[in-house]
Design brief:
Blueprint: H1 12-45, H2 65-79, H3 86-103, H4 109-123, H5 128-134, H6 137-146, H7 149-165, H8 168-179, H9 185-198, H10 203-215, H11 223-238, H12 245-260, E1 269-270, E2 278-279, H13 280-287, H14 290-314, H15 331-344, H16 348-354, H17 359-381, H18 384-397, H19 402-414
Helix pairs in contact: 1-2, 2-3, 3-4, 4-7, 7-8, 8-9, 8-10, 9-10, 10-11, 10-12, 11-12, 12-14, 14-15, 15-16, 17-18, 18-19
Length: 419
């Protein structure tokens, strides 16, 4: 078996990409901070006018408590005389949502937030401010956790009514709301498919279609659906989505690719003779048909594309990955998934540290497993001596594995070796 050098966690190019992303993230964070403060001041000046607080700036609101309190007081005061202003309602909706961020645990914020957003949509089913806030994964996730079933049902009903009115924005929000519950994956996928047909140039539609596909249970009968899911994420990337959709598209490409892959192209060593172990590639050339090698090459190309997507996602600011929560992944999972992907590419020196595994532990464990499995086949076919040899290797590599020890004892017994 060839030696596997222990290298840096990421190649130099990847480290440079991550460093560049971190620097860009610092600049973007400062800009986001300024935009958040400016939006709060704009609401304080005129609470009836649209003044979008950046979704990514939600974490920064607590740094601007004075501006926040002024904006909330002005918006509340303006409501009595401007109850028919949907932008005021949207402003109040997000300010109530953010109260916990600023004040820490003040009750009733989520319900009051929902009430204002619903009022805004009742007055204007296409209100961009309300739909923009409601479409954020941060708000939808919090609503799903903190609101009651009837409240969520009311939100779904209001969004469905707005969709029937012709609001494409409401259709997107309703699809994303359904995506928050795996039980509604099929309905979400159907709605997202309709959205892609209405607007082929909408990256959001393709991401939602792909995200719903990832929610559908995997299986052989869904092979074409899995490939359609991967194609949807690739289409979204072609459309050059803006944050946070870019992060969702990148992670979606990787997740869908790994789901489509069915061939193990890892760095195992197979013991197929008494004299000379062979590598996985050599083993395939001996026992697998030619089409298996072609499929393996295709799988490796796909795994490389997935790794590249994950490297790009890893360089993004954390807030740009929040949409990926609807794909079942968040920023903390990117490194682990990247490790698994690089491992498919026979790159354990880079992959294993990302997976939290020491290289020698991984290599020994995989070798021991292969020795044990090959020994079981040899034992069943009657070659007990070679089975004992391979099982002794497995036990030497993993002495605490009870299964390997038991199999060695059984093989030794059948070989007449009782000591």
């Amino acid at each position: 078996m060839r030696a596997i050098p222990i290298r840096l966690i990421l190649p130099v190019a990847s480290l440079l990409l991550a460093a560049a992303g971190a620097a860009a993230g610092d600049v973007g964070r400062a800009t986001l901070d300024d935009e958040t403060a400016a939006a709060l001041r704009a609401i304080a000046r005129d609470p009836t006018a649209r003044a979008d607080i950046p979704i990514g700036g939600f974490d920064l609101v607590a740094r601007h408590r004075e501006e926040f309190e002024a904006a909330l007081a002005k918006a509340r005061g303006a409501l009595a005389e401007n109850r028919d202003k949907p932008d005021l309602r949207a402003n109040l909706g997000v300010l109530y949502f953010l109260r916990d961020t600023v004040r820490g645990g003040e009750p009733g914020g989520m319900s009051r937030s929902l009430d204002q957003f619903l009022a805004a949509l009742a007055q204007d089913p296409e209100n961009a401010a309300a739909l923009g806030y409601l479409g954020s994964s941060r708000i939808l996730r919090a609503f799903r956790v903190q609101l009651s079933g009837p409240e969520l049902a009311e939100l779904e009903t209001r969004l469905a009514a707005a969709s029937e009115y012709g609001s494409v924005g409401a259709e997107h929000v309703l699809t994303r709301l359904l995506l928050g519950d795996p039980a509604h994956a099929a309905e979400a996928r159907s709605r997202a498919k309709e959205l892609t047909e209405k607007d082929l140039r909408s990256a959001a539609s393709w991401i939602e279609f792909g995200a719903a596909g990832l929610r559908v249970a995997a299986g052989a009968e869904e092979k074409e659906e899995d490939e359609a899911t991967l194609a949807a994420f690739n289409k979204a990337l072609e459309l050059d989505p803006t944050p946070p959709q870019r992060g969702a598209a990148l992670i979606g490409v990787a997740a869908a690719t790994l789901r489509v892959l069915e061939i193990d192209v890892g760095p195992e060593t197979y013991a197929v003779s008494r004299d000379q172990p062979v590598t996985a590639a050599e083993y395939r050339s001996l026992v697998a048909p030619e089409e298996a090698d072609a499929e393996a090459r295709k799988a490796r190309r796909a795994a490389r594309a997935a790794a590249d997507a994950l490297l790009r996602a890893r360089a993004l600011p954390r807030e740009d990955l929040e949409d990926a929560a609807y794909l079942g992944m968040d920023a903390d999972d990117v490194g682990l998934t990247l490790g698994k992907t690089l491992n498919l590419l026979d790159d354990p020196g880079d992959a294993l540290p990302l997976m939290g595994i020491e290289v020698f532990q991984y290599v020994n464990g995989r070798r021991a497993l292969r020795f044990n499995n090959d020994a079981c086949s040899l034992h069943e076919s009657g070659d007990v001596e070679l089975a004992c040899l391979l099982l002794r290797r497995a036990v030497a590599l993993s002495p605490d594995h009870a299964g390997y020890v038991r199999n060695l004892a059984l093989a030794a017994f059948d070989a007449g070796r009782y000591r």
